[in-house]
Structures are given as C-alpha cells and as structure tokens.
Design goal:
- It contains two helices and two strands, in the order βαβα.
- The protein is mainly α.
- Helix 1 crosses helix 2.
- The radius of gyration is 14 Å and the shape is elongated.
Length: 69
Amino acid sequence: MNAYIYNVPTSHQSLLVTANLLNKKFIGIEQEKEFIQMSIARKKELDSQRKNIESRIKDLLMYRNINNS
C-alpha cells in the first residue's frame, strides 16, 4: 500500500520519525519556519543514522521478547 501519512502541524516531528522508520511517505504542514527547519534536520539525521536506529529497535524488541518469555 502506497498510503501517505499526513500531519498538521508537524511541530514535534514524532509522526515524521515513525513514518520514516516504517518506510511510509509523509506530508507535513507547518507554518512556523523554526519547526520546518527542525523537521528537515530531523529527517537528515534519521537518514544518516537509519541503520544504527534500526539495530537498536531490533535489540529492544529482542530484549522485550526475552523478558516476556
């Protein structure tokens, strides 16, 4: 499914982060320039750290599964 995630406003970028990690397309609307710049910086950070972030998520999921056994 090629659905888009749409978010107004994008001020905290939490949905942006989630959409990015789930490989979903994201459209955010924001009028405050400061938050736009923060979103751009967050996206660049996610792109550059993606493998590291994904490995940490896998580690957390594995840890949770071990502790719930």
